[in-house]
Design a protein that fits this description.
Helix content is about 35%, strand content about 15%. With about 190 residues, it is an alpha+beta fold. It is elongated. The protein starts with a helix and ends with a strand. About 30% of the residues are buried.
Length: about 190
């Protein structure tokens, strides 16, 4: 009986130690994610540095994005394409799908900077020529950033819409240079 009680006490101690170790690991990983998000937001801003582009303040729930996703906390859900909601990738996938075009399930390869290669595996081409309705990919930072091309303008700019440019989970609509981007033609 004493041996069983000793074994039980050891299991309880081991479990508490494991729980503390997992909590410390989770806190460390959350700090790493927060740092990556800060770095990505800074990379997004630097990518437009020196240009005349003015990124407007974000709008909650803008762009027609589904209300259940737009009003939920950032990353609260995974959308039908395997992407976290209120992220740039989820918004652009939804926007393309809402125009009747096929968007593949990204299944773990959905960071914005992965879109050209992931799309290519599904027979979707990409290039450097802007086209209305394309996904415009900024291959910067850890994650990259993707925007929906609303229109191509005659002065070398494009008008885009996106979510989460400033890592705030908000919608934006603005005009920026068309150069330096990869376009995915869904």
């Amino acid at each position: 009986m004493a041996a069983k009680q000793s074994e039980k006490a050891k299991l309880i101690t081991d479990t508490k130690n494991d729980q503390n170790n997992y909590a410390a690991l989770a806190q460390k990983r959350n700090s790493e994610v927060a740092k990556l998000r800060e770095e990505q937001a800074a990379a997004n801003r630097r990518a437009l540095g020196g240009s005349s582009v003015s990124i407007p303040g974000g709008v909650p729930g803008g762009g027609g994005y589904p209300g259940a996703w737009a009003s939920a906390p950032l990353d609260a859900y995974v959308d039908p394409w395997g992407l976290y909601t209120r992220e740039c990738v989820s918004y652009v996938a939804w926007k393309i799908h809402s125009t009747g075009r096929y968007v593949p399930h990204f299944g773990g390869a959905g960071n914005a900077n992965q879109w050209p290669s992931t799309a290519a595996r599904h027979g979707i081409s990409s290039g450097s020529t802007p086209k209305a309705g394309a996904a415009a990919v900024m291959n910067i930072g850890y994650y990259g950033h993707v925007m929906y091309v609303e229109s191509v303008n005659g002065d070398g700019t494009i008008t885009v819409s996106d979510y989460n440019f400033a890592w705030d989970g908000l919608y934006r609509h603005y005009t920026r240079s068309a150069s330096g981007l990869t376009y995915v033609y869904f």
